[in-house]
Amino acid sequence: MGDENFTSVKEFIEFILLGLTSHPKTWLLLFVTVLLIYLFTIFENTLIIILVWVDSQLHIPMYFFLSHLAGMEIGYVTSTLPQMLSHLLNGNGVISLACCILQAYMTLAMGSTECLLLGAMAYDRYLAICHPLVYALAMDRLHQLLLATFCWTVGFVFSAIYVLCTFRHPFCGIVINHFICEPPVVLKLACGDTRITKVIGFGLSTFIVLVPLFVILTSYGYILNSVLHMRSTGGWQKAFSTCGSHLAVVILFYGTIISMYIAPQSDSNPDRDKKIAVFYLIIIPLLNPIIYTLRNKDIHLAALKILIKLQRYLSTL
């Protein structure tokens, strides 16, 4: 590429996001669908946070981490879906460089934190089921706070490094075949040698994804072994009901994240990235609260208490 073209493209301060589809006739349907998903995701995750905060019966480590996961999911969808809704409504996918960098950072930070939080939740279940006698001491309030702080801090630091490495390059194009600014997709537009950036991104992604995944698989290996030695049928049911929902989330989330950030990418399917991203950016944040609370009697009881208190309050008005 000649010097003139390189300079003119490098100095662009806006990108164009192509979105999920280029067919204007489907934009309104997508707008309504995504809006409903966004509102319901915010509602259900906010409800979990309120229930855990209000009900003293839920002041235990499992629900402490679940409330952090719910807060992270709210930040996750809020960093992506409102802009996506705006683009669908206006039919214009233009995004400034500053907004693109901010969105890439927040999305990656929330996703990285979720990877680590899921690992922390698995470790919590391992201690509760395999080492119940030392559980209260090993997972006291201080250790809960330290573990949660570690997840948030590492997630945000990791994302800062990844995003800085990605956007330090000049860009030879402005059209992003995605509905958000995601580092691996943006990096495809970079000029010059990006091999070092790709190696750094791969190394960071491998750590942030595979280390928690190893913790999860190891924890559930021990849990499974412990459950198989239980004589009580009730113990079996309690263990599987507690851990089954977590494993469902792990399979959904880690499978799509690995295929996006770690598995080799092919140029034969240009829409592959955004199709994968739909799962971990839209579908999974919607399903997480449902999966965790669908068969959770503690959450159901806490919600019932809130409804009864609300009904009594309204009756006094």
From TrEMBL:
Domain named G-protein coupled receptors family 1 profile: residues: 44-292
SUPFAM superfamilies assigned to the protein according to its UniProt record, in alphabetical order: Family A G protein-coupled receptor-like
Compartment(s) of residence: Cell membrane
Residues passing through the membrane, by range: 27-54, 60-77, 89-110, 145-164, 199-223, 244-264, 276-294
Topology in membrane: Multi-pass membrane protein
Molecular function as annotated in GO: G protein-coupled receptor activity; olfactory receptor activity
InterPro entries in UniProt: GPCR_Rhodpsn, GPCR_Rhodpsn_7TM, Olfact_rcpt
Keywords per UniProt: Cell membrane, G-protein coupled receptor, Glycoprotein, Membrane, Olfaction, Receptor, Sensory transduction, Transducer, Transmembrane, Transmembrane helix
One GO cellular component, as annotated: plasma membrane
Family: Belongs to the G-protein coupled receptor 1 family.
Protein name: Olfactory receptor
Lineage, highest ranks first: Eukaryota, Metazoa, Chordata, Craniata, Vertebrata
